[in-house]
Amino acid sequence: MASIVQEKVAQAGGVLQEKGIDVWLTYVRETVAGYDPVLPMIFGEQTLTWDSALLITAGGESICLLGNLDRTLADDTGAYQTVIGYDQSIRELLLETIQRLDPQTIAVNMSKDDVFADGLHHGMYLKLLDYLQDTPYAERLVSSGAVVAALRGRKSPAEIERLRQSVTSAEAIYAHTFRQLAYGMSEVDVAALMRAEVTARGLTTAWAEHSCPGVNVGAQSVLGHASPKDLRIEPGSLVHFDFGVRQRGYCSDIQRMVYFLDEGETSAPPAVQHGFDTVINALQAAVDAMRPGISGVEVDAIARKAVTEAGFPQFMHATGHQVGLETHDGGTVLGPAWERYGQTPFGLLEAGQVYAVEPTLVVEGHGIVGLEEDVLVTETGAVFLSNFQRELILMPYQKAG
Length: 401
Description:
CATH topology of the largest domain: Creatine Amidinohydrolase
Distance between the termini: 58 Å
Largest sheet: 6 strands, mixed
Number of helices: 10
CATH class of the largest domain: Alpha Beta
Strand order of the largest sheet: 4-3-2-1-5-6
Shape: elongated
Helix content: 25-40%
Strand content: 15-25%
Number of domains: 2
CATH architecture of the largest domain: Alpha-Beta Complex
Structural class: alpha+beta
Number of strands: 19
């Protein structure tokens, strides 16, 4: 069975044909320090030491040029038809290869909008231009953004299965956590409980541990990528979670909501329930609209409208982002036409993409209300990979002591 690296390298040729690009060149060095985020997809987790060039052509040819001491790493991937090593300099080898291929367009690892296509450090770019001077190829360099977005976004069945497993594990950890939650626990306590379960399952958190999980208790907690604080669960506390795991290299990203009933309550306060229902409606409306060919900005507008029409301010983040090898996996964003998102909201959804959809709002006096569900785009629409939380989880009131 082909590895995911082999699948992606083989898939790249067709993407290049589609995008009208002759050669895709990923140029790197000493990747333990100069990390390129595309490498796990097309080379695996190994680090490269000397200057290395990974070339894939629209005709499906795959070539790896690298230091002789790293040759075994390329051979071990089983993804490259041609592996050539060098000892003193890659210059001549790279020039000979490019001249033989004679491409009219060369996509290189640089992008204004997508960090996962922007691994070419400035010094390496200058070196590449130096190598290509006095040739026509320096003028033929273009961004690899469209190529990388397509490869990361169009998940293979094997990738989708890994994402399903990651979602299932995250949901199991949520279920374990909800059985342990109690009045008096702090955000820090809850986060420690969840991290311990991640470790017990032999997994890692989907993003940095200091903010995974995110736990927000009550109105004093702040929305964002912050570490849990000493805010404690009391009767009437609204608790918001943001959490995911990395399993077999793929990430989940799921948000959940819990309300701790106050004395005499049998349901959440009307304002809290209204906020929760609004998030449900916004999320469902976004997912209903998701299909191949619609733009990210259109999906975002639908969710944003559902929130503002219910009387809440618009949320100051995108409605959703892709998930995969990373929690924020680049490519098209379900976001507004704000400068900070560049051109990413104008990308079109494609079958095989997986998105975390996350409309959010704040209920005055109670705190953050947000849900996040992982969703797969198919040829006919979108389906949930996670189990959509359609009802607010209510924790029964308990007297202190």
